[in-house]
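Notebook, p. 212. Picked up where the previous page left off. The plan for this session was modest: take the two constructs that came back from the sequencing core last week, fold each one, and keep the raw output in the notebook itself so nobody has to go hunting through shared drives later. Recording the first one now, exactly as returned: residue sequence, then the structure token string.
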Amino acid sequence: MGVLRLYLAICVVAAHSEPIFPWKVHDGREAVQIFFMISGFYMALISNKYTHKLEFYCSRLLRIFIPYFVVITFILLSSILTGIFFDKWGELQPYIEYSSNKNGVLGVLFVTLSNMIVAFQDMVLFLTHDAGQSFQFTTNFTDSQQPLYKYLIIPQGWSISLELIFYLLAPFLVKMRTMRLAVIL
């Protein structure tokens, strides 16, 4: 299981860094989908290990939040340092160039909050808040003049946000009978 998860992680890294690491065995979408399926199987496998749901939630949150905050801290520090010394702000560039002529304040605040709490980053891909427009859902986030996803410090965090929802539901889903799960599906 660990080797398969490592392989899938390499596929995702390769998909996000194609010019540097051109390796096309599985594309990133397939790898993420397979990874989510394995996560579901894995959660069912380890669910009996925990005596209380709170213990399960604490375990999952520690596994997600500690690495996330280490990575985001590194990205922020390196963006600040390259900004100060080279005037290239990296992932902070959209915040540095922010103008109310590009995006509404509410949309940018929502993305900033999702960067800080990890949750709702998946929703950012379905939201738009161009200047003069209302903060709203969109059918295609790329249609936006100034997409909100550009304010995500770790753009791939959408998958972590989605996994948080899955972890929230997992203890309840693994205890359900197959027929009930089929009805929900």
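Okay, moving on. Second construct, recorded in the same format:
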Amino acid sequence: MARKLAVTEALGTVSKERDQLANELKTEQERARNSSQAAAQLAEAKLAHALQAEPAKKDAEIQALQAKLAATETARQLAVNEAVGVVARERDDLKNDLNLIAVKNQLEEKAIKEQFALQLRDRDGEIARLRDMKARLSTKMVGETLEQHCEIEFNRIRAAAFQRAHFEKDNDARTGSKGDYIFRDSDESGAEIVSIMFEMKNESDETATKKRNEGFLKELDKDRTEKACEYAVLVSLLEPLHEP
């Protein structure tokens, strides 16, 4: 009995210790489970917060990128507008220059046409006047009129171009013939530079017998030789429709 009591008492003590340890284990397990759940909840809360913060961060980054793109696009558009403006101004300047040139050309063309038309009218009037004058003159008078014209033209430029020259009628007919005018020019020392025998030939359109230039060349050369002239010139209106 004493042994049984001792065993029972020993078992009771061991059972108490076992139950106490079991309770402590259960308590620790409960505490550990609660801690684990709290940690999980905390982690889950952190994850949820992180997940909520990430879209906001992304949205902020997207907005920042969009703002940057908008600023870049604005700057690009401003640069394009400025470049286009410069080109447009240059284009407008070129258009204005072309318009001015076109207007100037039109005015010049109009002025040339008007001047040409005026010259044509003056020429036609002069031709009509000369024809009328020639119709009223004899052959001899027509020839004398041509001589007078040549003398007047020479005297008009004598002072500027031929200050020491002589252009005078050939009145020496001792050899049986004579030219119309003799031109002689000299240098400063008085030495003769050039001498020319001139013969003027013309006739009215109404003259029955028409003469040709070559019919006067032989006699003109003879007069040139007799008057000691270096050259001979035939001033002729005998063949107006032919090349000289």
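Notes on construct two before I forget. Residues 66-136 form one domain.
Flagging for discussion at group meeting.
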